[in-house]
Write a structure and sequence with these properties.
sodium transport; alpha+beta; 108 residues; 2 strands; sodium channel; two-stranded antiparallel ribbon; membrane; ENaC; transmembrane helix
Length: 108
C-alpha cells in the first residue's frame, strides 16, 4: 500500500537572471492588401463589389464637375452681359424646330 505522500513531487526552477523578452508582431498592410480586405468584407456583408463603389464614385465626381462647369459658364455669361458684350450662347440666331409635320422658325 502506497501513501499519498509518495505520489507527489517537488520541483524547483531557478533562473540566473530575470530579464523578460517580449516579442510583438505588428503586420504592415500594403495598400493593395487593405483594399482587398475591405472589398472582401463589403462583398460578404453588403453584397457589393469595389468596382461598384468606384463606378459610383466616378459618377458622383462627373456630376460635380458638370454642375461646376455650368455654374462657371453661367457666371461668365452674366459678366459678358453686364459689360455689354454678347456671348455666343445669347446671340440672336434663328432656331428651327420640327413639330410633328411642319417646320417653324423662332427668333430669340
Amino acid at each position: 500500500m502506497t501513501t499519498r505522500r509518495c505520489q507527489t513531487i517537488q520541483v524547483e526552477i531557478s533562473f540566473a537572471d530575470f530579464t523578460i523578452t517580449t516579442t510583438t508582431y505588428k503586420p504592415k498592410f500594403e495598400v493593395f492588401e487593405i483594399l482587398s480586405v475591405i472589398g472582401s468584407y463589403m462583398g460578404i456583408y453588403l453584397g457589393i463589389s469595389m468596382f461598384s463603389v468606384s463606378t459610383l464614385f466616378e459618377i458622383l465626381i462627373n456630376l460635380f464637375l458638370m454642375k461646376r462647369k455650368k455654374a462657371i459658364k453661367r457666371i461668365r455669361n452674366i459678366r459678358h452681359q453686364a459689360n455689354g458684350e454678347r456671348s455666343q450662347s445669347h446671340s440672336r440666331k434663328t432656331q428651327v424646330f420640327r413639330r410633328r409635320n411642319r417646320i417653324s422658325s423662332f427668333n430669340n
